[in-house]
Amino acid sequence: MNDPEVLSRRALEGKRVALSASESADLGRLGLSEYHCRLVIAEVGRALMLAGATVVYGGNLSTDGYTDILLEEAQRFGGNSPVLELAIAESEYIKHSAQELDKIDTRLAEHGRLLLIRSDSLLQQVRDVSPRHPDQVDTPEALSAMRNYVSSHTDARVVVGGKLANYQGRLPGVIEEALLTAEAGKILLVAGGFGGAAAAIANTLDLGIDRGWQPTNFPAGDRNDVVTDALLRIRAARKELVHSDEETERLLNVLAVSHRPADISSSVVRLLA
How far apart are the C-alpha atoms of 131 and 155, rounded to whole Å? Predict the structure, then answer.
């Protein structure tokens, strides 16, 4: 991968940007794979870090997931700055011992920190964690608490891909995170080229001038009343960028349709700067 284009090393200094991403059911129809999702996560995360932003990612602690990708980018490009925060819901961190969590926190070192979000939206100290069975925690409640915390403590959010079916929370993760961000009055940037929940949001917001690239019944997935209502709430709540000029519209449209990591990362940084 090439280093993504950024405006300057400190263009986003002090900004906290949430990143929401997962593979979607549309990847195969678009000629893409989960590997392409990994490329986009790495490049967007890297571009934000190089521009001075702190990336906030709410996910799991799998060693082969997107969390690990962002950890590697932080170690390579973060220098001595805290450029990554990993927000972990109670339904996830209770699966691990304090010793296991401490290893991850140590791996972050000066590059960032581990945020353990309890189901009451308060922070949990690593040393106080005791492993429990997942049945002891309400998973939808825990995920919503983590997502609400991240939305309240960031300036913007970028969404890519995401499930529209077979999700664990009250809503598909990317949909709920986008909704919380929009209703908090924060900037919401939608990369719809990987399909899934992000594409549903982009279509609802009428982003992307040309939809000729979209297959039929796109994006794939059940669109129940709860999801449809959430999408309409996102449209009603979303705040446009302060200066909606011709260049801003062009970048928003590129972001809504592109599946090229360099285009996505460059558009994100330029829009936020």
Answer: 32
pLDDT tens per residue, range 54-71: 999 998 887 778 999 999
- Report how far residue 12's alpha carbon sits from residue 53's, in angstroms, rounded to the nearest whole number: 5
d(CA 257, CA 267): 12
Q: How many domains does the chain have?
A: 1
In DSSP terms, which residues pair with 160 in a beta bridge? 21, 191
69 in a structural domain: yes
Residue 209: CB atoms within 10 Å: 13
Find the domain containing 82 and state its range: 16-272
- Alpha carbon distance 263, 254 (integer Å): 7
Comparing 109-118, 125-134, 196-205, the range with the smallest average pLDDT is: 125-134
Q: Counting Cβ atoms within 10 Å, is residue 252 exposed (0-12), middle (13-18) or buried (19+)?
A: buried
Q: How far apart are CA 10 and CA 15, in angstroms?
A: 10
Q: Would you say residue 9 lies in a domain?
A: no
Mean pLDDT of the chain: 90
For residue 10, being part of any structural domain is answered with no
Percent of the chain with pLDDT over 70: 94
CATH number at residue 25: 3.40.50.450
What's the CA gap between 118 and 3, in Å, rounded?
A: 36
Identify whether 239 is part of a domain. yes
pLDDT per residue as tens digits for the range 123-154: 999 888 888 887 889 999 999 999 999 999 99
Is residue 208 within 8 A of residue 202, CB to CB? The reply is yes
Rounded alpha-carbon distances, angstroms, from residue 227 to 113, 233, 234, 272: 32, 10, 11, 27
